[in-house]
Amino acid sequence: METTVTTATIYLYTFGSVILVSLISLVGVFTLSLKEEILRKYIFVFISIAVGALLGDAFIHLIPEALEASSNSTLTSILVIAGVLAFFIIEKFLHWHHHGEDNHDHGTLAGADGTAGAPGIHPVGKLVIFSDAVHNFLDGIIIAASFIVGIPIGIATTIAVILHEIPQEVGDFAVLLHSGYTKKRALWLNFLSALSAILGAAFLFALGDFAELSAAWLLPIAAGGFIYIAASDLIPELHKTKKAEHSLLQLVAVALGVLAMVALTFLE
Hints:
Strand content: under 5%
Radius of gyration: 18 Å
Number of strands: 0
Number of helices: 11
Distance between the termini: 17 Å
Shape: globular
Number of domains: 1
């Protein structure tokens, strides 16, 4: 961030990325035309790719970059662990990603025909909207911090976030339908909560000179968060299928996610 041009470029990449991430919330509308079997198959593949991308971004990009920028590797390691614990606490409080097994298992396609899952609006729908808004706000901060450190790091982090958002948004959209929202209102509320990613990026940039210092601390914390999401939320989903061919496909998809992160190192 030494020149105005560099600053403008960082802003352009960051806000372009968070807008793209926000638009991922609209993916739910495309799931309505898919049969349940097809939807489950593709969510399964995207979850696997997301695992590889999140772990790849954490171990190939974020942690090495944080160690290089830090003079204290012990502190960096502690911040990674702090990231894992922070996301654990937040998920405990907000019920991120999985809003109860019953809600996901019984609500996955329950409202796909546009009918309400139950009379009125179930409280879990409001919880989904609120928790997603907080989640996306943090995503915006992480993406902005990554671009401050370097454009390639920011791109890698954005891709990892997008690959994680797709299966999550499909699931959350279905839960909103099951909670009693109409298709149109569920899509609109999901999109509004996704826009908080833009606020997160703007918040970090508003810190001014402190933003760069914050970025150095946020990278290892973000890495810990990505590791937590992959290990605690996504990998357990992959264990729900025991078929050998599915397990092989999972492994290949995870490897593709990691390789995508490896490929991005050539931009650095």
